[in-house]
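Reopening: structure tokens for the iron/sulfur cluster complex, inputs below.
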Amino acid sequence: MLRKIRIVVSAVLLTLITLFFLDFAEVLSIDWHILEHLQLVPAVLALNGIIIVALVVLTLLFGRIYCSSLCPLGVYQDVVSRLRKWTMKRKNQKRYKFLPPLNWLRYGFLVVMVGAFVAGLHVLVGLLDPYSAFGRMTVHLLKPLYQAGNNLLFSIFTSFGNHTFYKVGIYLLSVSSLIVALVTLATVSILAWRNGRIYCNTVCPVGTTLGLLSRFSLYQIRFDSSACTLCGSCSRNCKSSCIDFKYMTVDSSRCVTCFNCIDSCKESGLKYRLPRKGERWVQRAGEAPAVSARKKKAAEAAVSPMATPTMATVQSAATPTNEPPARRRFLIAMGVTGVAVARLSAEITLKLGAKKDVKRTRPIMPPGAGNFDRFTELCTSCHLCVAKCPAQVIKPSFLDYGIGGMMQPMMNFDHQFCNYDCTICSEVCPTHALAPLTKEEKHHNQMGVVQLYLENCIVYTDETSCGACSEHCPTQAVHMVPYKDSLTIPEIDQAICVGCGGCEYVCPAKPWKAIFVEGLTAHQTIELEFEEVEEHVVDDFGF
Amino acid sequence: MDRRNFLRAAILAGAAFTVKRSGAMTVLSQNMNAAPAASGAGRFDMVAVMGGEPAAMFRKAITEMGGMGLYVKKGQKVCIKPNIGWDKAPDMAANTNPLLVAEIVRQCLAAGASEVTVFDHTCDDWRKCYANSGIEDAAKKAGAKVVPADQESYYRSVTIPKGKVLKTTKIHEAILNADVWINVPILKNHGGAKMSISMKNLMGIVWDRGFFHKNDLQQCIADISSLDRRPALNVVDAYRMMKTNGPRGRSEADVVSSKALFLSHDMVAVDTAATNFFNQVREMPLSDVGHLARAEALGIGTMKLDKLKIRRVKI
Ligand code: SF4
Ligand code: SF4
Ligand code: SF4
Ligand code: SF4
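Re-run output (same inputs, fresh job):
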């Protein structure tokens, strides 16, 4: 029963989370972004107290429910195991066995993540955060397929005169992020195929953190020594490989509360329950409960030569401070050099930019990013903003923000520009790397500043009318002023530019655009003044 | 043999679908199917109405002209091309008035049109433009099909024999597949082209707008207006007009409530008249609006309004 509920809940959540990433037609309302805000790393970065407390309490009460149902990457691994189960022959199905925890790896990855955050190597934080890893897989691998499917449906329906579907542009957003997504997919899938949730209990820092809590959780899977016949079925069905049936213990720090064991046990030898009187709250492997001689014998018979019980001792929580100091220093040093290199490269490009070339020298951070430090520190490159931008103008960076900021999103005006009234990216961002903006705030948010090189402008070079830039400018930061004869030529007022890229996107000048937007290290607030509304009475035709 | 008969024959031959979608067929039919009003089928060369609501002004104008039946025949496919370029509400005068579009759709259907499609190649995100202009909703309710225009695959190559600079361009299939099309611009000031009226509105039927800006905008606007497949009717929406900061506009201060509507098959004439009308609010010499004279030179229409039979009505 518990298992069935778990499966249904997980399937629904995974579907919704994935669909929210894929859905470009706004079939799901933007409000569904709450699902992304529930994720642990984003909630911690966004300092979302309510969600953090809720998740901690949930785990302390019920164990790693988060891992079994809320985490899309976790549920994805279950899907992979399920696929294996369906495709493998029956006798290979019950295939898990107890494995000792790989503690040095587990805590190592957690330390790396925390260290990377402190050191400014945000790319590592993003790589290790399970939600962001899942986001990138969805955006870079699944979304193009989803869009292609839509376009296929579009062709079919339209040929029958039905206009329900419309075609969407499919763009290769970023080669580096695509590769990262592919590698993540391969790693997670192979691990899940072979060893169930080993990723969650070895690599994933969120799993490790929650494991520190779930060790003490109130409800745990616990043996009923009177009912258990030591048949070992639970161990063979435990995708976390955390049940040591011979000692009737469950390593609850690794248990992801999937309830497979309970369902697999014919004897009701396992229950999800509170500790009984006199029973240990925290289960300790290797500390066998009173076992009858008959059972002991059976156990010995069932012992697999691999799993030596003595190795399975749960070590005391290895917190980051237990790491040898030299290793920590190395990590920090590594991080610091990363930052230094990033800063340096930013400065070098800045100097080169002093030349009169029409290339952006600084990336444009999406609306709501505030300033560079804040943005790069918080963003985990989940690429939800990339996926949700209706104009598809956000794309992952490569080294534009330096090594530490690799994959973090930036604006790109090749195919479109940022809609003046749109605030979607800032609303959906779960880490608040893009802080939510109201429409009013967005109208006054300057994310970049327009630059005009008249020597490239068609009005100047060809002496013909153009004005495409001013046509697209929502604030008239670029406007047309009288030039030769009846021609008009663009003029800019940087103080009222919002950096939407309308002018840059549309400027037809070749090979260099005459107008483009330069990025800022910190977004600014602009003042907009509007003319008075004059009364005009038109009561004649005039011709 | 007109297109309809041809199609009927084709349907009999069981090949209607392929023929309709074949580009070659369109090029063929393009010449066979010169819009009826290109010869000036109406009772007047132009009808100008002032002082009413958008739908009422259109009803008045089309009645004066001789009725929708002059332009739309039973069973014909009609395409209506408003200006839906911007993600702006109707009262900002950046897009054609939705009430006017809806009324035209209704009139076409009443005249027996088999299908009415509405589209524009927008500048802002098309979904937002379609929705926030109010046009998608109004046109759909009136019975039209509203089709997207944001992908190149919706467009097909067409030659412009009279074009000086623009000799070939890609045009939206909704126009190419229709028997008749109606051009419904809104009257606006324009930073580059000076005025955006019916000829400038034709930029929304082409895919590559950049080419226009790059290669003498004013000439390209005149060139596209010389297209064989010209609108049967141009309905200039001047219920509100944008006097400054066009074509996008910044605030209410750019908008003038002018309550007028002009109707003509002659794009040059109606744009000249509308520019004169605009001059009452803000100075805009006809000579500055370069595409007017250039279009006249291409023989698309005339700027000499005094030679035309114009009906002026105030309601
Ligand atoms: S800015 Fe974009 S990629 Fe970064 S955390 Fe927010 S939504 Fe995810
Ligand atoms: S605000 Fe701009 S960048 Fe953000 S989602 Fe909207 S259009 Fe895209
Ligand atoms: S980026 Fe260009 S279009 Fe956008 S506000 Fe600035 S000048 Fe105007
Ligand atoms: S769009 Fe480019 S070429 Fe055209 S007026 Fe503006 S700056 Fe000049």
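The pocket of iron/sulfur cluster (ligand 2) is lined by residues A 366-367, 389-391, 393-394, 418-419, 422-425 (CB under 6 Å). Strands of chain A lie at 220-223, 243-244, 249-250, 270-273, 394-396, 409-411, 445-452, 478-482, 488-492, 515-525. Marking as resolved unless the reporter disagrees.
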